[in-house]
Write a structure and sequence with these properties.
Blueprint: E1 5-9, H1 13-25, E2 29-33, H2 36-42, E3 50-54, H3 62-72, E4 77-81, H4 85-95, E5 99-102, H5 107-122, H6 125-130, E6 132-135, E7 138-141, E8 146-149, E9 152-153, H7 158-167, E10 175-176, H8 177-184, H9 194-206, E11 212-215, E12 219-222
Parallel strand pairs: 1-2, 1-3, 3-4, 4-5
Antiparallel strand pairs: 6-7, 7-8, 8-9, 10-12, 11-12
Helix pairs in contact: 1-5, 5-8, 7-9
């Protein structure tokens, strides 16, 4: 598995330490810049796989950094900000950011978004093979988005497939409803969390051996029998 390099530009020391700890746990190499000017000077150095930029920074803001990055490299960028989320999201996308996350956020939510962008930007045949898993007698192929029970392809909706792929990406890991909503419905979803429960109920009916466990007040996980 490739060791990804992430450049994190965040002036809030505590938040930066938390994000760095979560990213390091994934095996990623994290370079932290608490100052916009320091991050700008690093653009000409070795190119990371992804930048995570705060917008409000000392000496140089995230917008200026994003422009400089996109001028020289096509490296993916995630914006994070505590300001007007709608305005910042629009401006960030116009300047070329790949995603936007409003503060406060769960570190796990940022990790999911980073994984999604890294997978999309740097997917290889080896990585695609790693996406094919067998769980409790079901064969789940995230590349072709097919689920097999023996030789039979099971009919699933898009939301059901997305949720199954997420839950089986790490067997035994508990995913919160917020993480599930962000992954399956996207960050702009404003509906009820009960939509998650409805999809889980359908999955349990179609794949009774999958063993989707409820963690009351939190979310769901898949357990291997």
């Amino acid at each position: 598995m490739e060791k990804y390099i992430i450049n994190l530009v965040e002036d809030e020391k505590n938040l930066a330490e938390i994000i760095k700890a979560y990213m390091s746990r994934e095996g990623w190499e994290v370079h932290h810049f608490p100052d916009g000017q320091d991050a700008y000077e690093a653009i000409n150095n070795a190119t990371p796989h992804l930048w995570v930029l705060d917008i409000m920074l000392p000496n140089m803001d995230g917008y200026q950094l994003l422009k400089a990055i996109k001028t020289k490299h096509d490296t993916p960028v995630i914006f994070i900000s505590a300001r007007d989320k709608d305005l910042d999201r629009v401006l960030g996308l116009e300047l070329g950011s790949d995603d936007y996350l409003a503060k406060p956020f769960l570190p796990e939510e940022l990790i999911i978004r980073v994984k999604r962008i890294l997978s999309r930007a740097y997917s290889t045949s080896t990585q695609e093979e790693e996406k094919r898993v067998e769980v409790n007698g079901y064969f789940i192929d995230a590349k072709t988005r097919n689920i097999y029970d023996g030789n039979e392809i099971l009919e699933m909706t898009t939301k059901e497939l997305d949720l199954i792929i997420l839950l089986t990406s790490k067997i035994g890991k508990a995913f919160s409803r917020e993480e599930i909503i962000d992954y399956v419905w996207g960050s702009d979803y404003y509906g009820s969390e009960r939509a998650v429960d409805d999809v889980v109920r359908r999955i349990r009916k179609k794949l009774p051996r999958l063993h989707v466990e409820t963690l009351y007040g939190f979310g769901y996980r898949v357990l291997s029998s």
